[in-house]
Amino acid sequence: SIPDLITALTTAEQRAATSLKWRTHEKLLQKYACLPHIISSDQIYYCFLHRMLTIILTNNVLPVQKAAARTLCVYLRYNRKQEQRHEVIQKLIERKIIFPYWNRLRFLDTCEVIMELFSKSFFCKYFFLPVLELTHDPVANVRMKLCYLLPKVKSTLKIPTDKHLLQQLELCIRKLLCQEKDKDVLTIVKRTVLELDRMEISVDAFQKRFYENDLLDQEKERQEHLLLEMEQLEKEKQQNEGRSTNINNKIFEKKRRDSKTSSALAKNITLSVPGSSSATSAGKEDKKSKLVRSQSFSTQALHPKYNTLDKC
């Protein structure tokens, strides 16, 4: 019944997208976040994930775009294949270059959801530097949204592991303070600088004040590593199945060849037996013909002698 469910869900989403009821479309996309608990990650990847990307890029309604971005992040969170995850991450990072500028705003919204759903190390590995690149964005609204997001970005860092990322963040803030020409953005930058100075960065060592947040982050990281291990186990299982099928095919081919050779030998034996009997019969006939010839020669040789004796 799962293929019928997938077709019904895709048709429902297309009808909601073509209708003018954007609130229905938004609620439907929010509910689609429960699909990883029902169907496999491959089915989600091929049927729903790319659809969420197109909604984020093409839809004009902001709540619908945000709902699609959150559902996309949930799909990415529960995806089991590393190649598919890398592909989606690459598309998300490339999308921030696409014009118009609101694609970059949606990219920042998506990064905010990723910080909520994924571990700190995941965000720092894939999205930290692409987010900081938007400090040079030509649109003031994008820079403003980035400034609001910078405290959350800083909270994903761990010292001393992410020391180089902290240096990059400080460098970007200095550039914003020195080069920013828009007054509104500059005031927000100054506020964020004060907020960032008050912030305390979590250290890799255990600390009581960050106890709950660290535990949550460790749980997220553990689940991400578990997904990678499951993917590795599935690959090993497929390789072992492939090897066993190859061995079975080789055994089957060997048996078939043996049966062919045995049948060919049996045919040769049956052909050789009647041939020998015919050869013996032919030899007997030759002997008989030789005897007949010898008898005829002997009679021909004796007849003239008898004739001469009769005459005498």
From TrEMBL:
Query: Could you say which residues form the signal peptide?
Result: none
Q: Which GO terms describe its cellular component?
A: cytosol; protein serine/threonine phosphatase complex
InterPro entries documented for this protein: ARM-like, ARM-type_fold, PPP4R4
- Record's compositionally biased regions (Polar residues): 261-281
Region Disordered: what ranges? 235-297
Which molecular function GO terms apply here?
A: protein phosphatase regulator activity
Which top-level group of life is the source organism from?
A: Eukaryota
The biased composition feature labelled Basic and acidic residues covers: 251-260
Name the chain's protein. PP4R4 phosphatase
